[in-house]
Amino acid sequence: MAKELNIGLIGAGRIGKLHGRNINSFVSGAKVSCLAETFLNDEHRAWALENGISKTTKNPDDIFADKSIDAVFICSPTETHIEFIIKAAETGKHIFCEKPIHTNIEKINTALATVRKAGVKLQIGFVRRFDHNHKKVRDTVASGKLGRPHIVKITSRDPEGPPLSYIATSGGIFFDMTIHDFDMARYLAGSEVTEVMAYGAVNIDQDYKKYNDVDTALIMLKFANGALGVIDNSRAAHYGYDQRTEVHCDKGCVLVGNDLNDTSVISTADGVFCEKPTWFFLERYNNAFIAEVEDFIKAIINNTEPPVTGVDGLKSVEIAIAAAKSFKEGKPVIL
Amino acid sequence: MAKELNIGLIGAGRIGKLHGRNINSFVSGAKVSCLAETFLNDEHRAWALENGISKTTKNPDDIFADKSIDAVFICSPTETHIEFIIKAAETGKHIFCEKPIHTNIEKINTALATVRKAGVKLQIGFVRRFDHNHKKVRDTVASGKLGRPHIVKITSRDPEGPPLSYIATSGGIFFDMTIHDFDMARYLAGSEVTEVMAYGAVNIDQDYKKYNDVDTALIMLKFANGALGVIDNSRAAHYGYDQRTEVHCDKGCVLVGNDLNDTSVISTADGVFCEKPTWFFLERYNNAFIAEVEDFIKAIINNTEPPVTGVDGLKSVEIAIAAAKSFKEGKPVIL
Amino acid sequence: MAKELNIGLIGAGRIGKLHGRNINSFVSGAKVSCLAETFLNDEHRAWALENGISKTTKNPDDIFADKSIDAVFICSPTETHIEFIIKAAETGKHIFCEKPIHTNIEKINTALATVRKAGVKLQIGFVRRFDHNHKKVRDTVASGKLGRPHIVKITSRDPEGPPLSYIATSGGIFFDMTIHDFDMARYLAGSEVTEVMAYGAVNIDQDYKKYNDVDTALIMLKFANGALGVIDNSRAAHYGYDQRTEVHCDKGCVLVGNDLNDTSVISTADGVFCEKPTWFFLERYNNAFIAEVEDFIKAIINNTEPPVTGVDGLKSVEIAIAAAKSFKEGKPVIL
Amino acid sequence: MAKELNIGLIGAGRIGKLHGRNINSFVSGAKVSCLAETFLNDEHRAWALENGISKTTKNPDDIFADKSIDAVFICSPTETHIEFIIKAAETGKHIFCEKPIHTNIEKINTALATVRKAGVKLQIGFVRRFDHNHKKVRDTVASGKLGRPHIVKITSRDPEGPPLSYIATSGGIFFDMTIHDFDMARYLAGSEVTEVMAYGAVNIDQDYKKYNDVDTALIMLKFANGALGVIDNSRAAHYGYDQRTEVHCDKGCVLVGNDLNDTSVISTADGVFCEKPTWFFLERYNNAFIAEVEDFIKAIINNTEPPVTGVDGLKSVEIAIAAAKSFKEGKPVIL
């Protein structure tokens, strides 16, 4: 496949812009030629121009109708994902869709069926799988050299909470934040989650209670392979983005810490000062965002399975639903 | 109080010998003068001689009858603790008792009532509180400089499992191993546990199933102050004694890692090799074992509250009972 | 200055290609439009095309003659630097020149005089100043919060040696390798070097002796501000690119380690395994190469002093000459 | 050899007391029975009593005359060492002598000859060889698994300077401080020093100039095996006792850092705070002081060569003399 893949980008929010810039600046083999953004404004147009995107439109259907477009990046709000996945599949376009696919299992299944029928590729944006650190944990476990996994631990804390307006519509911590960790848990354990027990607390901002949401969570998992897992979440770590993973296996343990801003150690009579973790996901997962797109494009070019499938997207939503139920009912939920 | 405290030691197993040697070699202000060991043999006698313990007996009552003895160290099997605590209290001797006090709450309460009535000191052997690392976490949290605790995490993995014969009578992982972590959880959080949810698995040795025990466990906790907690246990880490604690609070996080055998880093084309954690509790908590005895002796000399009280001993047993119940019934247990 | 800077690139070796790609892919505000490479071949032409460089030539004079070109990047062999700097200055082009400027002090002075007279900017390619780690050391020292510097330590080891053919013409370790460290020493100490004492040894490859060169070196420095410095060099560390710096000051010490491939720690009964440092300068200084070009372009646009001046280029050569003399004569050399 | 070695201790200064307490509290197989201290006072007598030393005297000859004494610990001022070594040898007592043996090579040689003739053991108190960290470096190098050594680096900084009165008589930094590092250099390199070049500076306290001494030093070494070495010294690190060693070899590098007070990491919006190194030699080398005595006693009991010989003591003095000369004359000194 000699020619460059022609990409249509749907949505010019933070993550849409990130993918657009990455594809047109850092990724070879693909080019975003068209941006569809329902609330298109001059700022979007300027951004598109600057990033070599020649066409902009308010109507995503312009992308689906464009036969020159090979693949779409769906970076619009979650509730629009299913519609766009189905339209893309039906017009024969490969699909990169941001997480979560949706919050409704039935609709996800319908969309996945359409994708399967159309024979197009679908990749879900679980970017953390492409982080050099987490990938090392996964690769070490998957290699089998430590034996079978016993305990999977995921620390996942945001540096600062989102605006409350976001909480109002996000579906709650298990859907907007832990969803990444549920995928990571499956990825690291190499096994499906069979049971979930979730604890939550409001420790940071009492306003979370208005939305029946929490800002602090602990979730225990059972995996089909006999391993146990635990995730701890906080919406406000303050010291940076705390993203550590650890798997204890038959023969020992593999763990990764954070990337730091630098490796400095300053020692004085007052103490020893080291650097903080990188601030948030844009800094920590900068290279991972590029790598996930490169792998998506390779999967299309080489006609292979994308590294994060629609089923992966579905599974993490199922776990999130179970976690939300467990938290609400105060007891474990079996998947 | 100018004179040395006169100590009677009950039990010359591993932990009894450890305390005996520590008191007579490394601790000032106290001296073990008598050892009572039901199964007294020549090896015990030789050990006593070597460690400056002038008198040995098969009968613990010889210690209780000896008016010159100020305090006893109860290092005999768990099922004998209550009897010896009561006898010591009734004969006016201060008491250092190894953990767990017992597995029966009613009996513990009876013993504690006797101790209170007698006005003697009682300290329980939760040695980890005296470790320089965990103590730093606790002191940082207790200082309030990080604000209130949100998440307490305890990793506690033994390098290798005990003999199965031990499992047969130990009461199971929550009583023989996690009991330390339950105490640590209360110590770090500075708050009582109000709910427990325990997961367990047999990942290391299928023979554990014969004893209805597990070798891998995850336990989630709720604390009265709103914090959440999690403990992960493995009976066979293989790489050493993995004892890490972490508390995330309003303003940030404090955590401690393991002590390592040395600080070496060896870098070659094959990789970078660091040292393993110290092997097991004798190595890791060597200094802590001395410190807990010193603090017990200070509490007697200064007539102050011992640093780990009978109530601390009781609480950890209550949590262990709840954890065992949660694991058995597959649902959370409220304390 | 609204328009993009128009850049002429001289030399399409490893470093020329690196700058060409960086400018045209990752740096905004500038564009390489022409490549001059004496030994221009099809591979060079394909690389230029791929990187959006529209014009190629065998004759650097085509660049100097092109009035649309604002600045040149001199990435040709060291012995050509002086000629190209002078031509660029005389044709009014700003200059980015790779290190070392040259090995002849007189010629360097002539070139610098021409640059000064022409009023163009000249920046020397000491890329390590733009590394996040070393920059942190420098900024900490320069802030004065640790007081005045006492001891400057630089560890600088290549993962593997260059081909012997390179050694034959490089001028030796002090000119081709330590030159970077001499600049780093001045940068960190914030002071000029006043005396040099160099030890060298052939420990890796006896063939270095044929070229009167060494593969292992230790160099001590005195600085005008009273600080002492030491650099250790090896041409073959094997475990990666070992680039650590440390400054001890009145009130304490600041040091930086290497960037690692990832933050993993794998613990088993066999030991604890961590990741190696990034392999070589392309990996370690990837971002620094982009940052130095961005700063050069900013200096032109804002008409400010470039962050690494011609004098910086001169000084490091003077120290290298002194180090070579010290090594040869076996005694300290005063600058 | 069933009976306990009977030890005579000469000198009850800081180091004498340390050895006395260690032998009588923590070391088995030996017992200090007599203390000789020229300036014996009530405080010394109380200390002796407390530590189970039954006899005290102002006259060291009482020790040499006592036929029941098997070995002496010479912890008196440096200028008395030679006399006491000779007397001990002539009265057939094994000798542990603190560093430095003396500052006069001729006198040292006389003493060593007497020791050899008498056939008694002589061990010099280079305690750092018994530190778990430095020992790991040495053992790694000596094992040969990294190949031959190329570069030896020693960082050795005291937390705070001694009183100026000490400087007045200490012989200067190379004799009172770097002497330890010279021994460490030989120990790590496994080879003799053939050339020394010393730089010094007064950066901390100008009063050092009155004594022709410095508070900051860098010393380069050449070893017979082709390795190069460097030592950096500061009399006032402020952040603790900074004692790191590193050896780069054919196949890679082994290094050790400091022992820290604890392993805590406190992360907040203000930064990441780690613990400081242990404060000074009493904390850092606490276990090493015990180990060196145990090894001395073993050497006597097993009739083997002590781990640090009189020749080791001589060599480090020779290097110190060369370093002092190099610093004074501003040029390298060949040994």
Give a nutshell description of this structure.
The structure is a homotetramer of 335-residue chains. The first copy, chain A, has 335 residues and is of the alpha/beta class.
Structure in words:
- Four copies of one chain form a homotetramer.
- Chain A is α/β, with parallel strands linked by helices.
- The first copy, chain A, contains twelve helices and 15 strands.
- Chain A has helices at 14-26, 42-50, 61-65, 81-90, 105-118, 132-143, 164-170, 173-176, 178-189, 281-284, 286-301, 310-329; strands spanning 5-10, 30-36, 55-57, 71-74, 94-97, 122-124, 149-157, 193-201, 216-223, 228-234, 242-249, 252-256, 264-268, 271-274, 333-334.
- In chain A, the strands form three sheets. A seven-stranded mixed β-sheet of chain A has the order 12-11-7-10-9-8-15. In chain A, strands 3-2-1-4-5-6 form a six-stranded parallel β-sheet, sandwiched between helices. Chain A has a two-stranded antiparallel ribbon with strand order 13-14.
- In chain A, a hairpin with a 4-residue loop joins β9 (216-223) and β10 (228-234).
- Chain A is globular, with a radius of gyration of 20 Å.
- Chains in contact: A-B, A-C, A-D, B-C, B-D, C-D.
- At the A-B interface, β7, β8, β9 and β10 of A face β7, β8, β9 and β10 of B.
- β12 of chain B pairs antiparallel with β13 of chain D, so a sheet runs across the interface.
